[in-house]
Write a structure and sequence with these properties.
There is one protein chain. The protein has 69 residues and is an all-alpha fold. It is built from four helices and no strands.
Length: 69
């Protein structure tokens, strides 16, 4: 058996703990803004923001706002 050079579970726990600590005193709305702000720096985050922007511009978008997660 070879030794691990990267421990994904350890990294995930460290990241989760750091984010939890950073968001500890935030309201749910502040948490959403914070996470979206962090995600905006990634290609995936930019893609999600662009898709939401496009969806908001489509007819009937006002009705969809109440159905969002």
């Amino acid at each position: 058996m070879t030794a691990k050079t990267f421990d994904a579970v350890k990294l995930m726990r460290e990241l989760r703990d750091r984010l939890s600590q950073e968001m500890e005193h935030m309201t749910p709305e502040e948490r959403v803004r914070y996470i979206r702000g962090k995600a905006a720096w990634t290609a995936l985050g930019r893609g999600i923001a662009e898709a939401e922007k496009d969806a908001a511009q489509q007819p009937g978008a006002a009705d969809g706002a109440t159905r969002r997660r």
